[in-house]
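Pipeline run #58 for the internal structure catalog. This entry was flagged by the ingest filter as a single-chain record with no existing model, so it goes straight to prediction. Upstream metadata was stripped on purpose; only the residue string is passed forward. Reviewer on rotation: M.T. Logging verbosity set to normal.
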Amino acid sequence: MKISKKDAYTWFKFFATLPEEEQLTAHQSEIVYAAFAQIEEVVDKRNRELMESIGGLKTLQNRTYYVGNDDKFPNGCKSCLLGTGLSAVRKTNKCNLECKFCYNYGELDDIPPVGEGMWEIGETKYYEKDIDLLLSVHKKPTGISYVYLEPFMEIEKYYPVIKKFHDANIHQHMYTNGTLVTGQSVKILAECGLDELRFNLGAANCSDKVIDNMRLAAEHIRSVGIETPMTPEFIKGFFEKKNMILNTGIKFINCAELHLNPNNIANYYGENMYISRHGYISPVWSRELSLKLMKTADDEKWDIVVHDCSNYTKFARGLNLSAKEGKWFGANDYACEFPAIPYEYFLPVLQDESFLFLSEEPLPAEYADGL
């Protein structure tokens, strides 16, 4: 069904008025999915055209796209997309910043603690002393990642755990906003065996302090890079300091397509949105910014990897991990993060006169009635 933009807007405006718990009829659901398909088709076409303009575009076994020096492609991403990682390790329940794109926006003071002296691994609580037992029983993952909020708020707690996983020959990477990094902390992290440190450079808006801390980290840790959601604010800040950033010694930039959840979506109200494979909801511009950055990197021959960590990549990640876990054919944990579709957030793209559906047809009579 090639629904028109006008009909899609009329119906979505109606759906936005319904109580969240009200179930749609089968015909109404078909209208929703038809509108989503129309929007996604336009987004895919735009992205394909951008990709075709990148002469040096490469693929990692068709699971993601990148440009640049193959030797600098982050092993943490290879573990995620090809190996048996990515196993999340969680400790810290606090952050010293509040970013509008954060998945925990508005609830940072209410994140439950993991527990005194405990770590969350595989959604299970462990004491540090239990990790030896874990490693002796479970098949080791190819990689683990230290995720959630800001580990450098209590980085000294991470050192012995990183040492344990390093001794077990498991690749490890950590995420940070970079504001609390010190020369001493990255030196100890390197000595303990941390393989990658990933800076969310957009969190502090490409501040000079964080850029300096990236340089410090690159002096000690074997692979340092940037992983940040692609937003207009980040791109503006990045290009204002491009040379300074590229001279820090980083090896990669992971261009994360910003996807939204109930905590942060209101911060982007009014932006053109699309939903990818009925899963992640993202601003249309986020992956476009990734691809434009990749084209610049390719044209200028930056000696790093610039990686398109898109919704497509997340979908491929879910397939890889479900296959490695022996789940049923087609299983994937990639899914929408909203309990109900937030219809009102799709009204702007349906009103945007410059966002044209590729083809349209009238609704069949049995679908046209019922408003």
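catalog note: The chain has a mean pLDDT of 96.
catalog note: The chain has two domains: 1-52+344-371, 68-339.
status: ready for reviewer M.T.
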